[in-house]
Amino acid sequence: MKVTLFRGFSFEAAHRNMAAGAGSASSRLHGHSYRATVWLGGSIDNQLGWLRDFADIKSVCAPAIAKLDHCYLNELEGMRDTSLADVTRWLESCLRETLPDVERCAVEIVGDGQFNPVIQPAGRQGARLAQVGFWFAAAHLLPVLPESHKCQRLHGHSFRVGITTSDAQELLKRLEGIYTRLDHHFLNEIPGLENPTSENLSRWLWEELAAAGSRPHEVVVQETCTTGCVYRGE
């Protein structure tokens, strides 16, 4: 019995897309959250009833994913232009050395890739509140951490921001300018974000909006789909 298995992974990395034209946003230092999927094919073991243990696939792929995670892709040996096609090629080439039954790999970027705000009801205690959510892609590092900590290395994320407000339309007028300052940039170079943790970024967003005349009820910043920070003012 022949089957194809697939296993998903995630990693956070910074890069400059050298395949993009000079002066484009993608050629600037920025970062993303990435999803990688690995497909393996072959005949199952009739006694065990499977092709491979998913835990074994994870352990075999782990060294390659670890090289990609919390790194600057342009510095990886064998990487060419750090486009999605190039990162996919690099991963597949790396895995074939230890996983000969790999059929193919795919790498995709998490997030919208453009300013595409979504308004949803917040439903807080009967109040007429809405959350305005959007994504942006950026690089950062946390310079005060020990060198042994992975977040002290240059890397990046697809950040998701959710801002709860009583006037979503008014908030939208302020957000695109803020998005432009953050998206496809190196956050540490932005005044006030020299140590751009999720906590500091949520407060920075609150203060920028307040300075522009908006008063959010809540700011949520997520670096990954499983981690985030909620800020409701001092």
Describe the structure.
The chain has 234 residues and is of the alpha+beta class. It folds into two domains: 2-109, 2-Layer Sandwich (Tetrahydropterin Synthase, Chain A); 118-231, 2-Layer Sandwich (Tetrahydropterin Synthase, Chain A), CATH 3.30.479.10. The chain is built from four helices and ten strands, in the order ββαβαββββαβαββ. The protein has helices spanning 54-68, 84-96, 168-182, 198-211; strands at 2-15, 30-43, 71-72, 102-109, 118-121, 130-140, 155-165, 185-186, 218-224, 227-231. Strands 5, 6, 7, 8, 9 and 10 form a six-stranded mixed β-sheet that branches. A four-stranded mixed β-sheet has the order 3-1-2-4. 33% of the residues are buried.
Short descriptors:
alpha+beta, 4 helices, single chain, 6-stranded mixed beta sheet, Tetrahydropterin Synthase, Chain A, 4-stranded mixed beta sheet, globular, 234 residues, 10 strands
| Stretches with pLDDT under 50, minimum 5 residues | none
Q: What helical percentage do the residues reach?
A: 10-25%
Shape: globular
Q: Based on DSSP secondary structure assignment, what is the total number of beta strands?
A: 10
Can you give me a brief rundown of this structure?
The chain has helices spanning 54-68, 84-96, 168-182, 198-211, and strands at residues 2-15, 30-43, 71-72, 102-109, 118-121, 130-140, 155-165, 185-186, 218-224, 227-231.
